[in-house]
Amino acid sequence: MNTLLSASGLGARLAAVICVCLSVLLTTLALRRAAVSYQNAFVLRATASLRQNFVVADAGRLFLSSLLLTALLGSTGYGLMGVMGALLGTVFAVVAPRLAVAYFARRRTRTFVYQLPDALLALSSALRAGSNLTKGLELLSTRQPAPLAQEFTIVLAEYRIGRPLAQSLSEMRGRIDSPELDLMNTAINVSRRVGGNLADTLEALARTLQEKAHMEGKIDALTSMGRAQGWVVGMLPIFIGFVLYQQQPERMSLLFTQWYGWIVLAVIAVMMAIAAWMIRKIVNIDV
User: Fewer CB atoms near the end CB (10 Å): N or C, the chain?
Assistant: First the structure.
């Protein structure tokens, strides 16, 4: 009887060990599959973004750099603030590459918009000199600086392989998120369909865009103090919290280890996000 009980107990333990091993194996396979899927999605998205912004970089190395940054910030946050710090550092490291790509895209778009009035004036002069629209766009692609020259080079390459010019200009509008391109595309498409003096239209559009850029520059200069104050107000609670944590680590650690501390942090984060949104709405004036 004792032998049967021992055998049954041994079998139960063996079954439990097998179940645990299978669970660990399945979990490992699932995590590996999820990691591979995330890596593939990251590489594809990063490759598309880099190509669109004409940045020569290896997406695989960027993924490895992102992993190293995640490990570094996560460990640093854990050493400074515990589990909550590790979580914050990991989230920031995951979001940082996307924020960097978005920043470079916005900067490239802003540079393109500032270059567009001079390019339209050059195109208008070329049309008045007797060149056709295709020859004028070719001059823009060879004599204008990047990124404007890069975008018009793509437009001409697509036009030469048989794609309609209107479609190529529309796709350039999709790559460059700028309403100024809508005006240029509309002027060119209307002129190609119903005729008219395209040179005068482009010159008037260029003058309008120059005035708009001049006004936006004045607004940026006048609202720069408000943006600086927004950054100071946004960083001040984080700085004060860090100083208090260094002075009273036991009391401040309750914010990261107790449920009511997490609620306080969530309320603070929501209020700071609302404040940042309101400041952004105040200082961003659409012309």
Answer: N
Surface-to-core class of residue 34, CB atoms within 10 Å of its CB (0-12 exposed, 13-18 middle, 19+ buried):
exposed
Q: What is the pLDDT of residues 173-225, one digit of tens each?
A: 878 878 888 888 888 888 777 777 788 888 888 888 888 888 877 887 777 77
Tell which of 166, 192, 209 closes a domain. 209
Same domain? 96 vs 22: yes
DSSP assignment of 174-224: HHS--HHHHHHHHHHHHHHHH---HHHHHHHHHHHHHHHHHHHHHHHHHHH
122 or 47, which is more confident: 122
Residue 50 lies in a domain: yes
According to DSSP H, which parts of the chain are helical? 2-52, 59-81, 83-128, 133-143, 148-160, 165-175, 179-194, 198-247, 249-252, 254-257, 259-283
The pair phi, psi for residue 128, each rounded to 5°, is: -70, -30
Distance CA 213, CA 224 (A): 16
In a domain, 193, yes or no: yes
Q: Which two tokens stand for residue 114?
A: 């500032």
Whether 188 and 253 share a structural domain: no
